[in-house]
Predict the structure.
Amino acid sequence: RGPLRPAADFQLQLQQRYGQQASTLLPFYPASNDAEAANSQYRLARDLSFGLPAYAWATAQSQLLHQPAYVYRFARKVPATGEYVQYGAFHTGEVPYVFGTLRAVNRPWEPGDYDLMHTMMAYWSNFVRTGNPNGPDLPAWPAYQSASPQVMLLDLHPSARPLPDQSELDFLRALPGN
């Protein structure tokens, strides 16, 4: 977290935080040059802040509580101009889709964004009503199963997919302190 660091500083930061485990982390989050380190820092921050907690929660929900959990990854690179192009699919980017407020946000929306908005509104409404996001004319959203985790990838063409970055998340989950 914090500002991006050059590759050498990122490697040192990993060493300070993870000790001997740092060298086993680098294959998942490589840092052989500054550009690679920058990408790894974004991915590691994403996985620690969002991926790992969601993964742990969904696993606990399905294994311990025996209740269905429905996990998604919002993958739509929100249309943008200027400096905002760099953000791609970002935290809270899904909010205007869920609440049907795309027109209230000044973005160069495409027709597919409105289709995604209607799909997401239907999923969330169904979940609120029934505890299950699925409904007529919607792509099937499987309940999360820890043995073979699937998530709904919410993009212009929503579909269920294997849990992205599962190897990284499994590795992080096994590290002491995570």
Notes: DSSP finds six helices and three strands in the chain. The longest helix spans residues 34-63. The helical segments are 7-18, 22-25, 34-63, 95-98, 111-130, 166-174. Residues 31 and 155 are 29 Å apart (CA to CA).
